[in-house]
Amino acid sequence: MNELSSKTRQLIEQYTFWQASLQPKEGVSTIHVDEVASRVAAFYEHIRTIIDWKEEHLMRRAAIIRKLKRRFLDLELNNFAAAGMAEPLVMEFIRGGFFLNDTIEESKIQDVQRIIEKYVFIVKNNAETKNQLLEIAACEIEETLAPSLKEMALIDFMFSYMKERIKVADGVYTSGLLKREETDTQIYIAVQQALFKFDSPIISYNLLKYKFNYWDRPSQEELLDISKNISTILQNIERDLNHPLGKKFYAICEKYDTPYLLLGDILSKNQTIQLEDPSALEGAVRNAYAKRLSLLKTKIRRAAVYSTASIFITKILSLVVLEIILAKLFSGHVSFISLAADVLIPTLLMAVLIITIKPPSAKNMTLATMETMKIVYKKEKPDIYEIKSPRKRGVITRLVLSFIYLLGAVISFSLIYWAFSALQFPLHSIVINIIFIALILFAGTAVRGRSEELTIEDESSGIFMFISDILLLPIAGVGRWMSNKWKRYNAITAFFNALIDMPFSGFIEFLERWRYFIKDKKEEMR
Asked: 286, 254, 256, 284: which is closest to 271 by C-alpha?
């Protein structure tokens, strides 16, 4: 019988603690919101989900960020009072369906209040860091209300293994590309990105805790020191997140994250006894792999639908209105064929991107099983993944590669332009449809990237894949640039935030108070 590694035993203990934390505590008061008001608020949040679509695991925090920023508006006017802010904020989260009713302890309100006051203190001393700090504050609030015990346990578990397995070549250090003290930070970032697809705010929050063990509960002196140096601290974290070699660390962690995910799934079901028996563990791994693959397919389909709907509402809808205006100006009439193309082309393109996704081969499951065995049981000689210095390219080589990339972009956009011209689309309609295609290609590329979550085997790329990369990557790059710009100038999101979000929240609070008032009156009648 194989012996479990000490790291595996520690992970089992952490998962056991997590499972115990899920049990309701007796005699502890929890926060309750009115069910009717909650249903109305949850319906509105479903609409916002389509408008502000992000990956599913980011949606709750996106809502927390949005509500925090709305309540922090007064801070810019120097008329801000943090006192008593936590309770209505937490209740708003529960009404919106982001946390289950009657599950969050009332004592958590004081914890959230302390978090708000901490960040208000820092922001007041460094106003230029407000947006970034509010996003980090949202991460800390979410962690307080719904602690990610098992996720952080798995991150620490994989981090401990990757520190042993990833070896950086001495040439990388001597060339100045990476400092030795930065290695663990880059591995820690890559593990979070690979395992749970964490974004910059949550990684920044985890890095703050990693670098400052007192971050969650600083003393007054420590808090003052943080507020004085927060700009430098955040700049250093930004530099870590955008390190030139970060992609190399991520590529290794992304390739080998599957066994850690599968082990986490097994422990989540309290199947610790099976770990002692290799044959039982193999069966458990295969079952976990099959379930995760099925769930992944569902997530991909859902992401495709929601991302397409989000692009349509926030981007395409506004451009369709623009096309109608331009058509009236230039041709005097609106082409319904062009408008139909505006809707059908993005939808069909996303459908093609999803249909052509290939599931991992049977060999991949075998590789996943073998890799899981390697991390569960003791092993004398661990696998080593080396990071070497990137190949140096001369000026001429860089110019040639840049020219090829630019040539691919010219050919791609020219082919799209020619196709629409052949169908006698007007110029403004062609430009708008090119924008649609770029946005959908970028979104589709992200969805396809998620489909490789379980893939360990090396990707086989033929001539067709090589040509498609040359032609499609430039278009997806343009879509990425436009999508990022749209976040700043999204008229529909701004409309919801300014004219609907705040009044609606006030209406929901009034509805809940009215419901409690009616209940009190009914009790008086008895």
From this structure: 284
Residue 520, classified by CB atoms within 10 Å of its CB into exposed (0-12), middle (13-18) or buried (19+), is exposed
Please check whether residue 115 is in contact with residue 140, taking contact to mean a CB–CB distance below 8 angstroms.
yes
Hey, what amino acid is at 487? K
- As a whole number of angstroms, the distance between CA 156 and CA 150 comes to 10
Contact, 456 vs 371, CB < 8 A?
Answer: yes
Q: Which residue has the tokens 């609606």?
A: 504
Q: How many CA atoms lie within 13 A of 70 on its CB side?
A: 22
**Inside any domain, residue 315:** no
Compute φ and ψ for 2, nearest 5 degrees: -70, 150
Q: How many domains does the chain have?
A: 1
Distance, CA of 498 to CA of 491 (rounded, Å): 10
| 507 domain-assigned | no
Burial class (CB in 10 A: 0-12, 13-18, 19+), 488: exposed
How many angstroms separate the Cα of 224 from the Cα of each of 125, 215, 220, 228, 387?
9, 12, 6, 6, 39
Does 485 fall in a domain? Answer: no
In the chain (526 residues long), the average pLDDT of successive 10-residue segments reads 84 90 82 74 62 66 81 60 80 84 90 92 83 91 93 95 93 89 95 92 94 92 92 94 94 93 89 75 90 84 72 61 64 66 73 77 88 86 84 76 82 87 78 80 78 76 70 82 63 50 58 59 58
Residue range of the domain that includes 64: 31-147
The total number of residues shown for the chain amounts to 526
Q: In degrees to the nearest 10, what's the CA dihedral of 348, 350, 351, 352? A: 90
pTM recorded for the entire structure: 0.80
Q: Which of left, alpha, beta for 438 (phi over 0: left; psi -120 to 50: alpha)?
A: alpha
Q: What is the DSSP string of 345-377?
A: HHHHHHHHHHHTPPPPPHHHHHHHHHHHHHHHB
Please name the residue that has the structure tokens 């660390």: 249
Residue 206 inside a domain? The answer is: no
